[in-house]
Amino acid sequence: MAVPRKKVSRMKRGFRRSADALTPPTYVEDKESGERRRPHHIDLKTGKYRGRQILEPQNEV
Fold first, then answer.
1. Nearest to 49, CA basis, from 18, 23, 61, 37
2. Which of 25, 32, 26, 28 is nearest to 47 (CA)?
3. Distance CA 13, CA 29 (A)
4. pLDDT at position 35, please?
5. What gap in Å lies between CA 3 and CA 18, rounded to an integer?
6. Could you tell me how far CA 53 lies from the centroid of its own chain?
7. Is the pTM of this model over 0.85?
8. Strand partners of residue 13
9. Mean pLDDT across the stretch 29-41?
10. Hey, CA dihedral for 53, 58, 60, 61, is it positive or negative?
11. Which of 11, 21, 27, 31 sits most deeply, having the most CB atoms within 10 A of its CB?
């Protein structure tokens, strides 16, 4: 049976356990285009943020 050589330090144990607290990114549905996007981010398809045109809209090819 495998036995660890040394005790795992509190810091290393904490580094390993910190990954358990990670959550997947959240997405919201855009009101105008209906596309999913990250909250507080520009909708790349329409180029709008909070109703204002920020970027040029991407054309479908």
1. 37
2. 32
3. 38
4. 84
5. 24
6. 23
7. no
8. none
9. 87
10. positive
11. 27
The answer for 4, left when phi > 0, alpha when psi is -120 to 50, beta otherwise, is beta
Residue among 24, 36, 4 nearest 44 (CA): 36
Task: Tell me what percent of the chain is helix, strand and coil, each rounded to the nearest 5.
Answer: 20, 15, 65
Contact between residue 59 and residue 44 where contact means Cβ atoms under 8 Å apart = no
Q: Confirm if 47 and 53 have CB atoms less than 8 A apart.
A: yes
Q: Which amino acid is at 29?
A: E
Q: Which residue has the higher pLDDT, 34 or 6?
A: 6
Rounded to whole angstroms, the Cα distance separating 23 from 5 reads 33
Rg, C-alpha atoms of the chain: 22
Helix (H) or strand (E) holding 36: strand 36-37
Which conformational region is residue 51 in: left (phi greater than 0), alpha (psi within -120 to 50 degrees), or beta? Answer: left
